[in-house]
Each structure stands twice: as C-alpha cells, then as structure tokens.
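step: validate -> pass
step: tokenize input -> pass
step: predict -> running
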Amino acid sequence: MSRPVIRGLLLSLGIAGCVAVLLMTTVGLVAPQRDGLVAVSLILAPYPFLMLLVFLPLCFAHGTRARLLRRLMAVCAIVFLVRFMPGTVSVARAPDPGALQVPVASWNLELGRADPSIVVAAIRQMSAGVVALEELTPGHAAAIGADPAIAITFPYQVLRPRGGSDGLGLLSSWPIDPDWTVSYAPPILDARISPADGQAIAVVVAHPYRGTFPPGILGVPTYDARDRDAAIGDIRRVIDPILAAGTPLILVGDFNTVDREVGYADLAAGLTDAQHAVGLGPGLTWRPGDIEWLPFGLLRIDAVFSANGLVPLSVGPDCTPRGSDHCILHALLELPGG
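step: predict -> pass
step: emit ->
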C-alpha cells in the first residue's frame, strides 16, 4: 500500500474520530445518563480528546481532507478547553490568622494491599487534623492503633475494619464525640469532632459502592450505577439534617463517581467541593491496580466536601506509589471565627 493511500486512510480515520468525539460529548451534555454507554462516556470524557493528538501531525498535510481535519481538531481543542479546564486552574487561598485551620486527608487503602509499615509511615507524616480511611482491614487497623507516633498526633481514633471493602476509619487530633455511628450498607461513619475553643464539626466518612459492568446485549458489558447512586442517597440522608442544622460539615471519602456523572450532582448538592474551589490541576486520585505504580491518577473519585462555614483553602493528591490504587488526598479547610 502506497504512502499517499496510507496517509489518506489516516486522515479519514482522524476526521471520523473527531466527529465521533464531538457527537459523544454532545450526547453526554444534552442527555446525560446514570447507566449505560453514555454514562461511561461521561466518566472517560477527557481521554478520547487526548487520543486525537495522534492525528495532530496529519494536520500539516496538504489537501481537502487535511484542511477538514485541521478545522475539526481546532473545534475539538476549543470544546476540550471549555468542557474540562474550568475548575482546574483555581488557586489556594491565604489562611485567616484568626480562623481555625482543619487539615483533612483521605486515603483508600485498597483492601489492605499496601504494606502496613508503609501505611503507618505515611500517616505519621500527615499534619494534625482529620484523617479518613476507606477499605480499612484488620491488619492495617491493628498497625495504626498500635503505633505510638500516630497516637501522639491523632490521639482520638475510630477504627472499624472489615474483611472486605467496607472498613472505615477516622483519626483526629481533636476529641471525637462518643455518639458517633457507623453503618456498612453502604459504609458511612458519622462523627463529631470538638476543636479546642471551637464549634463542633460534623465529619462524615463515606464509601459508596462502585458501578458495575454486567453483560448487556450480545454479552457486551454495560455500566450499572444503581447501587452506587442508591448509596449516595443514603449519604444524603445522613448529611441533609446536618446541613439543615447549620453544623459545619466535612464530607470526605472515596465516592466512586467523577464530577461529570449524574450521581455526582446528587452527592454534591449544597456542598463545596474543595477541588472545584481551590484545586490546581485536575486533582486525579485513582489509577487501576495494574498501573498503581504511576505517580499520578487517571480519575478523580476521592473528594473533600464542606459546608456551613467551612471554607477550603487548598487541596491536592499525593500519588506517591504506596501499594494502593488510590492517591492520598490532602485538603486544608478553614472555619472563620473558630
């Protein structure tokens, strides 16, 4: 096959790819779905645009198809910037010296896969404040609870490990009200912390189920987020009374939803997502287990939300490989007048 023929085929493929990506984006914006292929396209939405970069050299070719490809690539670039760049160029806010500073961290330990000594070492390095743990297993809970250095920084601990993915933990530098509650269907830990001379703060750690990929028509996998969205409904039933009461709220955890999904809108209503408010970059927190050695994430499914006076100052993931497919998410919140 001659070089001009190959180039022509590639140009046609690039044009078709641009059209497909633009159509997929349009459908996702006009008619977003909770389940199915449209929902999957929302989750992975930025990556088809990035895949189009392989056709960029063809834009410098001559001819009618090359001109069409250039125009379509320019449209795709504009759509990408408008669709995905807002919220990725926020800047951290300067703290108020008279306000209460609340460092928050969240880490999904991936069913205990990380070495306990690595987990303990990472928590030792965290700033005093609040640490939320998801998929906490008995081995990790025992190592954390027995470590004297962690006990100095985080003397107040609620560790509720489980053998599966339901275990939760909360470490705090401030007293935890003894009336905390925990449930496992879905995993939700509802607690109150009491900073010295400050107003009580509600801390809710949650881990709704992830969407599943059951076989669909002709055995082709589809996407089913019904259990995940039902779990988000359970989370809302916990936090909505807190919001109504005006109690400062931190909602933190692995929520198994990206901010382009319909379920995210249900979860985030009335809350401030720290990443949207002060995040710099996309804030990606998860990568598949087979490539968890990557020092960056591919999706943002971990988040820190706040409400009722708590203001985010900064947020960002630490994706140093530690044996978990999740990065550690760090945020700094502020309670004016606290």
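step: describe -> Residues 77 and 134 are 37 Å apart (CA to CA).
step: cleanup -> pass
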